[in-house]
Design brief:
Low-confidence stretches: none
Strand order of the largest sheet: 6-5-4-3-2-1-18
Largest sheet: 7 strands, mixed
Helix content: 25-40%
Strand content: 25-35%
Structural class: alpha/beta
CATH class of the largest domain: Alpha Beta
Order of helices and strands: EEEHEHHEHEEEEEHHEEHEEHEHHEHEE
CATH architecture of the largest domain: 4-Layer Sandwich
Length: 308
């Protein structure tokens, strides 16, 4: 099975504090790497975690609050110091290009590589990006400023050929390709062999959802139904539910309720307030609602599909 996993670089809310860093993640599919949010110090976290920063060609920014974006200018200018030439795609709500342009202008810095800014309509669930491995969709979230989550979906794969059938029917390359594409095969003697006899289905397609920052949002479960791994912010515990509502954040129990309604396979909690030196309280509250809840740990890779 293809390697599909997420590295948590930062799981803190608002401030770098108590050994936590602001929001940032790296999603890996085989040898492709995608950056999700870029809080203060992200490039240092990439180095600390030995993540290949030069392989990042797509960056997805959920919203323009500092703890999700203030590390971006440093990363972009560092790429220029390394004379990067590879184009970079950045997906973000409206305003990010202007923020970066101001900083580049007043620091008199010209990037050595092209950057394409793609503005996200944060009110729509739509396809943002795709390559040969993944499709990435926006997820409308409910925060104090325009905010989008992201749904990373594995693209359909060809059927798997049954090795014993290659020898049994003396299949050539063209016939194998036809069967894997779901086409029936005509042998040299005129016999028609159904592709269902020659192949077996690939493993089920995996999906990863990133939802930060957001208040409890009843739209989400329908958009991520059956997701393999859900990362959902859990800034507060139950005793601060009112504060969560005012600040448009979520409690751990609310994150778990989203996971339960979505029939998610696993819930990964993050974006913890500095008031919690230990995430154990938040994890325990989430598990009351959704058993397969885990408090995220910085510097750890988590598989998309399979246990945590």
């Amino acid at each position: 099975m293809s390697r599909f996993e997420v590295l948590l670089l930062g799981i803190g809310a608002a401030l770098p504090d108590r050994g936590r860093h602001p929001s940032a993640q790296v999603l890996r599919y085989e040898e492709c790497f995608y950056l999700i949010d870029c809080g203060e110090g992200t490039q240092m976290r990439l180095s600390d975690c030995k993540a290949p920063k030069q392989k990042l060609n797509q960056i997805f920014i959920s919203h323009l609050h500092g703890d999700h974006v203030y590390g971006l200018i440093g990363l972009l200018t560092s790429y220029t110091l390394f004379n990067r030439q590879t184009p970079l795609d950045i997906f973000a709500p409206e305003g990010l290009e202007e923020m970066i342009a101001v900083q580049l202008r007043w620091s008199r810095c010209a990037l050595s590589y092209p950057v394409a800014y793609h503005v996200i309509d944060t009110e729509r669930h739509c396809l943002l990006f795709e390559d040969k491995y993944l499709q990435v969709y926006s997820l409308p979230l409910s925060h104090r400023i325009p905010t989008s989550g992201f749904l990373f979906c594995e693209k359909p794969r060809p059927l798997n050929i049954r090795a014993e059938k290659i020898e049994e029917y003396a299949l050539d390359f063209t016939q194998i390709k036809q069967a894997k594409a779901g086409q029936d095969v005509v042998l040299s003697d005129g016999r028609l062999i159904l592709h269902t006899e020659l192949t077996h289905p690939p493993a089920s397609l995996r999906r990863y959802a990133y939802c930060s920052d957001t208040a409890f949002d009843e739209r989400l479960p329908g958009l991520i139904q059956g997701v393999d791994l859900l990362y959902h912010e859990s800034t507060f515990d139950n005793s601060h539910e009112m504060e969560a509502s005012i600040s448009r954040h979520s409690t751990a129990a609310q994150a778990a309720e989203i996971a339960r309604r979505a029939d998610a396979k696993q819930l990964l909690l993050g974006h913890f307030s500095p008031r919690y030196p230990d995430e154990g309280l938040l994890e325990a509250e989430a598990r009351v609602v959704f058993t397969d809840s885990t408090a995220g740990r910085e510097g750890r890779w988590y598989p998309v599909g399979g246990g945590l």
